[in-house]
Amino acid sequence: MKKSVYSMCGMCTVRCPIRVEAEDNKVTWIEGNQHLLGGALCAKGSAGPALVADSERPQQPLIRDGGRGAGRWKEVSWHTAYDYISDKLKKIKKEHGPESVVLSSRGGPWQNMYKTFIHAFGSPNYTNHDNTCGRNTHHASLSLNGVGRTGFAYDIKNSKHLVLFGRNMFASLKIPENLQTMDMLDNGGRLTYVDVRQTMTGLKASRFFQVRPGTDYALALGMTHEIIKRGLFDKKFIDQYVSGFDELCSFIEQYTPAWAAKECGVKEKAILNFVDEVAEDMPNVIFHPGWNLSRYKDSFYASRALHILNVLMGNIEIKGGLIIPKGPGDCGAKGIQGLDCPKPDIKRADGVGWKYKHFDKGPGLAHLFFDAMEKHDPYPVKAWIAMRHDPFTSMPDPQQQKRYFDNCDLLVSIDTHYSEFGWYSDIILPESTYLERDNPICVQKGPKPRLAVRRKAVEPEFDTKPAWEIFKQLADRLDIGDYFPYKTIEELYEWQLKPTGFSIDDFKEKGFVSLTDDPVMFDRDKLDGQFKTPSGKIEIISKKLDDAGLPSLLAYESPNKPPKGMFRLVYGRAAVHSHGHTINNPLLHELMPKNSLWINKKVAAKLGVEEDDVVDVIAANGVTERVRAHVTEFIHPEAVYTVHGFGRQIPLQTKAYHAGMSDQKLMVGKLDDWDKAGGAINLCEAFVQVRRSPRNPKRRVEL
Amino acid sequence: MNNYMIYLNSKRCIGCHGCEVHCKTNKGLPVGPILCEISHDPLKSVKGIPKTEFNFRSCYHCDDPFCVPICPTEAMIKREDGIVYIDQDKCIGCMACAGACPWSIPQLNPDTNKAVKCDYCMDRVDNGKRPACVTKCTTHALKFVTLNEVGI
Questions:
Q1: Is B12 in CB contact (< 8 Å) with chain A?
Q2: How far is the C-alpha of A449 from the C-alpha of A589, rounded, in Å?
């Protein structure tokens, strides 16, 4: 039987809206939702059916049958798996208290389900992957604007100038944003791109600053100086909504474009010309405050500076600027019901909320649980449930992490594929892939808010289950099933939609329910109450940071130069992979089976490294990864670059196994190198040595 | 006379290789054959910015294709509207077509041991749709052009 289903992609966490056709339980066609994307989909999105068909993923629950990481698994029934986990959790709860259990997820629109589970169990310790992604950007926005990083939607399409600091959007794809940017460029808009290397995004730029690694903050300061000096700011907006502008003016005095140009290794004239363009394009200039800015020691302040530049532009709540996302209430509609359980009144084990008061208590910071594991401070952490989160791939130094996790009595991995953490865990619960599962309804806030849902297109290929069922089953066994008031997904949808007046059938026409026909915009003179800082103003001098003993405007410190013979290791993404979890997909592996190490041409010549030579990339303690070199003039000589997610070590993933290099394994000792102001781990503060590998083949004998 | 062509707006192309996978998934192809290809020239500095042009290549659907007469089983067929396609029932996988083609466009499908090539997704075109690569192009950089539309 042929069917067509509107759904949501799951190949990466952008979750693009899709429409899927299936016949005889096989996917025959996937495209981007015509109503929202005009059919557009990326390579990963089209490779979804290959994920469903991939037999190199867990096909039923697996319980460890040897040492951790030994890779010996016992196949068990779901019943046995649920009992195994609930029995262990009950025992741990009895011995160490419920707070000794941590649940981490990737984040996203369904995290309230996982939060509900762990809170109902009695633990406040919910966390997610954002400590290695957007936490700095999030906290920067929170400290300045009083709202997190999703507190603004970017109306790129109608802007005149988009400024991207390392946000390589045409490789780290987000199709709706990509289409907007292309349309903006087609309309004659400008794109300024800043990075340590040339990228797909930089190719489309009208201005490109190749900066010395770690100097983004300096460039932002230099731009701010010139913009303020030339009076290119929205005085009315600042008078009305912003505090601390005078402090900014005196702080920025010393950071001239000439200084910034020298620090970043760019031309002063280029900065001045850029500001000329800003003068023409403002207020429709958008400074993207960063996505994955868990990079340098001052990335939090770099992001804060970019947020401040937006404030100076006065681009908030205007067409072609930063628009405050609207929810159902702003359209006179009622929102959906979500699963919820109040957080237990217990200190978080990661210290967020009591030791570190300036951080968002929602997901805390995943890397700060290791102390609790090792030193039982403030109490022991004895179990970790990773819901589609892979700490070993996302955080530095998996070897060190394993030593910490060995203090735990239970490690659970719930995932569609084998994660590196899953391979080391005690039990793997295989989640059905996004094409084989339903997910709860979610609200997508924005200028035009809507309700959206993921519906399965085919029945599971293997004995896998959707998350809503996994958590319900576990909750029932732990006597917290009342927090999950449903037996089937239909019952859950009905319960979610109860207040809205909609039914699940209303999603059939377009795959979503629009809550307004026209974008909802607030009156720009009445934005009071939108900035949820202590003072209600946009706080250039943040009270929260003050209270934490942290500066709001950080004096610039030049990044460390790599020691002689070493390079700063930086990472990024390619358009055909979503970090580690697509490397084993046959169709994506075909396009990009391995990563490489980008190295500057001049530097490579000194090292005797030529294109495609095998190089050894060596970390401080001798940990070595081996990979092919890509010699190019388009990367800064201080940096070497690789695509993150490769170098996987799961033998059952035959394509991904040991293919390419892993950057996180080279970040030895870097779990402790994190941003005290922004919270994220500094993932680009590791230096490595590079040499032409003695393992390069010298000759080839064929007969 | 060819009625159709696929045009790439290089300005909008981001070299994401989406088209290649859109094609493969639609045709159910295994690892190996790739029927359309995105490539780019080496980067060159233009006014201080490293730039490049992207190229899209599938089958050229030649006016006078070499692959058609060489086929021993008459499996390679040129339609009235110009589309050159392979009748999979007749193809014996001898790959003479690939040898005759100046660009070796036809490729072997290792699952079926028959030749495959771009046919502009003619089943879709015949139903009023566009080829898979065009329909799903990530940035709407690919266009399926009907030549009488542009007055040729």
A1: yes
A2: 36
